[in-house]
Write a structure and sequence with these properties.
By secondary structure, this protein is mainly beta. The chain folds into three domains: about 100 residues, Copper binding periplasmic protein CusF (OB fold (Dihydrolipoamide Acetyltransferase, E2P), Beta Barrel); about 80 residues, OB fold (Dihydrolipoamide Acetyltransferase, E2P); about 90 residues, Elongation Factor Tu (Ef-tu), domain 3. About 15% of the residues lie in helices and about 45% in strands. The protein is built from five helices and 18 strands. Strand 7 and strand 8 form a beta hairpin. The longest helix has 19 residues. It starts with a helix and ends with a strand. About 35% of the residues are buried.
Length: about 300
């Protein structure tokens, strides 16, 4: 068995290879890749190694998985999230792709409970309330998703959003329809964010602003495809869609943790084309004015960061 696993590892196609099943071009939509999917518990993210420790929600078996720098994500109802934003113990819907005999080798997509439940027409229905605790059952329309209600505890610093506004008193009542962000803390389900349907747009707007701020600071990640071409990863499809011809870019080499720490080159956008379904896959960007020899040195699956000046 060990020999077979070793041979499989030697024959494995690197994820940055165009022939790989998890190359960025295979991500036609967020969540479009992933052979194994389901509810898992997030424990930690190693930002130096880009690996995550996760476990099954039921059964508790742990897995250490590689997080690809082009892993797509949907967090707080916006694109993209970042793995370091997930809380220890958070319940998350995870998508994995295998490598050889390893079933959960690559994390290829994650989305939090807010987006997962809202996208499928699900919600939590309150059945009982108490002092900083309540019981709620997962519902789809008027049909229960769970055989029984679960007990939730409000975190001392819980953020409550009702009617689009942040409130101090959640004012929970029987039959309230809620959306939650919560974590396992020991045997407890501890709520960090509680919202009604009328508050989801405000939550999304805040998450979109945070994503814009992060991209402005850290850049979009991608590959250099050739002397005058970039491939921006699919997790940045929304931000890449704003690029305009004539816009100035800074392209910068990254370290092992995919942070922009290396040499940089300036370029100008010639054209942009999203090659995924519905405009939400990776983005091809033709550029000019960049030193061809510098860009040529960054080809071959080296991750770069791409910073866009104001159009």
């Amino acid at each position: 068995m060990r020999l077979l696993l070793l041979l499989a590892a030697l024959q494995a196609v690197p994820p940055e290879d165009p022939a790989s099943a998890v190359h960025p071009r295979k991500f036609g939509t967020p969540g479009g890749v992933g052979e194994t999917r389901g509810w898992y518990v997030w424990h930690s993210f190693d930002a130096e190694k880009w690996t995550a420790d996760v476990s099954r929600e039921q059964g508790g078996e742990h897995y250490t998985v590689r997080v690809l720098p082009w892993t797509t994500s949907y967090r707080q109802l916006a694109y993209p999230g970042h793995p370091d934003e997930l809380r220890p113990g958070e319940r998350v819907n995870l998508f994995f792709n295998p490598e050889g005999a390893v079933k959960r080798a690559y994390l290829v997509h994650f989305q939090d409970e807010l987006g997962q439940m809202k996208g499928h027409g699900h919600y939590w229905s309150v059945e009982e309330t108490g002092d900083r605790v309540f019981k709620a059952r997962g519902m789809s329309a008027d049909k229960p998703l769970d055989p029984a209600a679960f007990e939730f505890t409000l975190d001392p610093a819980v953020v409550c959003r009702r009617g689009g506004k942040t409130v101090v008193d959640p004012a929970l009542a029987k039959d309230d329809r809620l959306y939650l962000s919560w974590c396992y803390e020991g045997s407890k389900r501890v709520v960090k964010l509680l919202a009604d349907a009328a508050s989801l747009d405000a939550i999304k707007a805040g998450a979109e602003q945070r994503a814009r701020d992060r991209v402005a600071k850290e850049g979009m990640a991608g590959f250099v495809d050739g002397d005058a071409s970039l491939l921006i990863f699919p997790n940045y499809w929304s931000q890449a869609s704003a690029l305009k011809p004539g816009q100035k870019l800074r392209i910068q080499a990254t370290d092992a943790a995919y942070q922009a720490t290396g040499p940089a080159a300036e370029a100008t956008v010639v054209s942009r084309k999203n090659v995924g379904a519905y405009g939400s896959g990776c983005t091809e960007v033709a550029v000019k004015d960049a030193p061809a020899d510098v860009l040529r040195g960054w080809t071959g699956g080296k991750v770069v960061r791409i910073f866009a000046a104001a159009p």
